[in-house]
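Predict the 3D structure for this chain.
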Amino acid sequence: MRALALFLIAGLPLLAEGPRIVYTKTFPGSSPAYIQISLERSGDSIYKEDPKDENPVAFKLNDADTKAIFDLADRLDHFGKRLESGLKVAFMGAKTFRYEGDGAPKEANFNYSEDLEAKTLVDWFERIAESERAYIDLERAVRFDKLGVNDSILRIEMSRNQKRLVAEEQFLPFLDRVVKSEAFMHMARTRAAALAESIRAPK
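Done. Predicted structure below.
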């Protein structure tokens, strides 16, 4: 699966058209301490947990979610305005929004912003990060911890029920793999089948 992801990543520069939004957060002591999400107008995306990550996760957002994120960036002047509140608040991670379009890139750095649209955009990228962490966890469980697969799928279900899961289709190959293999517990196979069916259901 990661080999496929790397193939997709290699093709992104050729496929990408138009602007790109990059979200970066550095938060020493947290797990992960670093995340970076690059999103193309096409929805093609890359998730990293290290600036030098040679094995990032490639995924694709649907058109509606991609549009919502780029619309927020438009309303934020492509990050050409100050977003830091300046208030004395706890450190919540050093965040950067970067917009790479036709002209010179723009970026805004902040710890905490009172701008409602900036908050909404941060939440979008945090949901993406949570989803990719869930994807990585499911991949690891399917490959190396068959007894942990049921718990991994349960956590994905909970995230989905809380409207925190994005790019849901990326989970289908692993869910289908669980359903088809008797190496996994019956409970995990049943849960995987129900979740896959729900993801595939017409919206």
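The chain has a mean pLDDT of 92.
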